[in-house]
Design goal:
single chain; alpha/beta; 9-stranded mixed β-sheet; two-stranded antiparallel ribbon
């Protein structure tokens, strides 16, 4: 079985006019959003640049200057493959937005990709490796709306005002969540323009979002995909059905979109997620149900305060031994009430995990 790179070899010469956009195309375009195209793609809605031109300009930059402008090395490989694939090379890129604010705990980026003269794919970036990005993800457990979700809604609204054609939304990881949120919470006029939403292993939502009339109306147009050992895509709550994809990786590493298996023009589908994925999902849901929104906020804010004290910007920075020691010191400096809350919350997590294991053995 192949991956999206094999798909580009097999199907990359077939134009969208001949074979319309499919879920594999949606994953490819969603993954493209991880590339930081600042200064290479217009920031406002309007005329854009061909994908091949933007990719060539990006790859022409010294690699050392773009290390923090891709999620992984495969992103550069994807750009080269897209340049060589007529199906994608002529697509137009525009309206590139990139917001990063530690003060507002916000990490958001999006890219408009014209698939045809009428139809546009709006790709939302998932979580990057920054601590700010991960903190915003965890904030979803106690906030009905985080800043990136509001930014996604504003982005969709701004595009629809500019462009009269139908739109398709998509994203990987948090980007999938943003795509669903934007379409579900948009005004009825804007939502009517949404042809489909592709959510690739994105986390779920709070009950307030899941019971919103716009979300319930949108469910038939949401296409959700998770790998068989999904972790991220099982977080929080979902009401829309999902398709389970086979991955070449193991465990949490299956979240990597480059590991999802493709055959012909579609994904390799399996019947259900693994037992480990179901256990983890049950553990986290039991744990969160035992916590009030305030409990979750105090726990996450206290933990983030200790992590931020290291001055680390990314998870890679945090893994340095000196930073791990600083995290420990930071935890000891928190006020007694916060330390007690963190200890209690971790204790509830251990209790939830033990309960799931005991139920499984009985």
């Amino acid at each position: 079985m192949g991956t999206i790179f094999d798909y580009l070899d097999w199907r990359g010469d077939i134009p969208f006019a001949q074979v319309p956009l499919n879920p594999v195309d949606a994953l490819i375009l969603s993954t493209l959003a991880y590339v930081h195209f600042q200064d290479l793609v217009p920031q406002r809605p309007g005329p854009g640049v061909p994908l091949a031109q933007a990719a060539q300009a990006f790859l022409s930059l010294p690699e050392s200057s773009t290390e923090d402008r891709v999620r992984c090395d495969n992103d550069r490989k994807l750009l080269r493959a897209l340049m060589d694939a007529p199906r994608f090379s002529g697509l137009t890129l525009t309206f590139h937005q990139d917001i990063f604010s530690p003060q507002r705990e916000t990490q958001f980026a999006a890219l408009a990709i014209r698939v045809s003269q009428e139809e546009t794919f709006l790709a939302f970036r998932g979580t990057d490796s920054t601590l700010v990005g991960w903190k915003e993800d965890f904030n979803m457990s106690f906030l009905d709306t985080v800043p990136a979700q509001q930014a996604a809604l504003d982005y969709l609204t701004a595009w629809v005002v500019h462009s009269p054609g139908p739109v398709i939304l998509g994203g990987h990881s948090k980007g999938g969540n943003l795509a669903v949120y934007a379409a579900a919470l948009a005004s009825p006029t804007v939502r009517d323009r949404v042809k489909a939403v592709y959510n690739n292993d994105g986390p779920g939502f709070t009950k307030k979002v899941l019971t919103a009339p716009g979300y319930l109306e949108l469910i038939p147009r949401i296409h959700s995909f998770v790998p068989q050992s999904s972790v991220v895509g099982m977080l929080l709550e979902h009401e829309d059905p999902y398709t389970v994809i086979k991955s070449r990786q193991l465990g949490i590493f299956q979240h990597d979109p480059y590991s999802w298996e493709v055959q012909g023009g579609g994904f390799v589908v399996v019947d259900q997620v693994t037992q480990g994925s179901r256990k983890l999902d049950q553990t986290v849901k039991t744990w969160l149900d035992a916590l009030t929104p305030t409990d979750r906020e105090v726990f996450l804010d206290g933990l983030y305060q200790a992590l931020a004290g290291t001055q680390a910007r990314s998870l890679d920075d945090l893994a340095q031994p000196k930073n791990l020691y600083t995290v420990f010191q930071g935890l000891t400096r928190l006020d007694e009430g916060t330390r007690t809350s963190i200890a209690r919350t971790l204790g509830l997590l251990a209790k939830s995990a033990a309960g799931v294991l005991l139920d499984d053995d009985s």
